[in-house]
Amino acid sequence: MSDILCLYYSRSGNTRQTMAEIAEALEAELVEFTDGVDRQGRKGYFRSGLDAMRRSTHPLEKFETAKPLEEYRLVILGSPVWAGRCASPVRGLLKRRGQELSRVAYVLTRGGDKRYEEVYRQMDSYTAQPHLLEASLRPGSVGYVFWRDKFIQDVQRYLAEQT
Questions:
Q1: Around Cβ 55, how many Cβ atoms within 10 Å?
Q2: What is the domain range of residue 139?
Q3: pTM, to two decimals
Q4: Measured between alpha carbons, how far is residue 85 from residues 19, 48, 133, 140 in Å?
Q5: CATH of residue 59
Q6: Does the structure show a pLDDT above 90 at 137?
Q7: DSSP string spanning the chain?
Q8: Cα dihedral 52, 151, 155, 127 in deg (nearest 10)
Q9: What is the pLDDT of residues 65-99, one digit of tens each?
Q10: Neighbours of 151 (CB within 10 A)
Q11: Cα–Cα distance between 103 and 67 in angstroms, integer?
Q12: Which InterPro entries does this one have (predicted)?
């Protein structure tokens, strides 16, 4: 059983792919969650952006992890960036269960050049402790592999220091 959890929401599949790569490299448990809202296609894209701008959330569908969130050495939370904010399902998770996250790292996936570092602070407002590590990745970009691998190395270094 892994002591690292990669927990994520993905609308288009970019965050899913990124988190799967990170989980594989770290031999981490990988869990996807959703709020059950239909966010497919153009209509879903606009609904998602509007939900993010309004900071609205919906109840999450039940998801299973091997152990309680607070028992992991590190929870890596993955979110796409929507309208300069974390995805609404991720905000919903943080509002409902953020206090269970005392050792958390963030992975943001984005479509543009802006890194959206202010999103980390938005997410930290819901957690028990500020995040430990972060990555803002643009799948398909020239630097994607470099920054993804740097994040993985940072996680490995952090975990080695904790033993």
A1: 12
A2: 4-161
A3: 0.92
A4: 18, 11, 18, 21
A5: 3.40.50.360
A6: yes
A7: --SEEEEE--SSSHHHHHHHHHHHHHT-EEEE--------HHHHHHHHHHHHHHT---PPPP---SS-GGGSSEEEEEEEEETTEE-HHHHHHHHHHGGG-SSEEEEEE-SSS---THHHHHHHTTSSS--SEEEEE-TTSTTHHHHHHHHHHHHHHHHHHT-
A8: -20
A9: 999 999 999 999 999 998 889 999 999 999 999 99
A10: 23
A11: 14
A12: Flavoprotein-like_sf
Summarize the confidence of residues 104-126 as an average pLDDT. 95
Structure tokens at 47: 């609904």
Domains held by the chain: number: 1
pLDDT digits (tens, 9 = 90+) for 6-64: 999 999 999 999 999 999 999 999 999 998 878 888 887 777 676 777 777 888 899 99
Angle between helices 41-54 and 88-97 (to 10 degrees): 40
Other beta carbons less than 10 A from residue 162's beta carbon: 11
CB 107 within 8 A of CB 137: yes
Give me the pLDDT at residue 53, please: 77
Report yes or no: 143 and 110 within 8 Å, Cβ to Cβ: no
Q: Tokens 């028992």 map to which residue?
A: 71
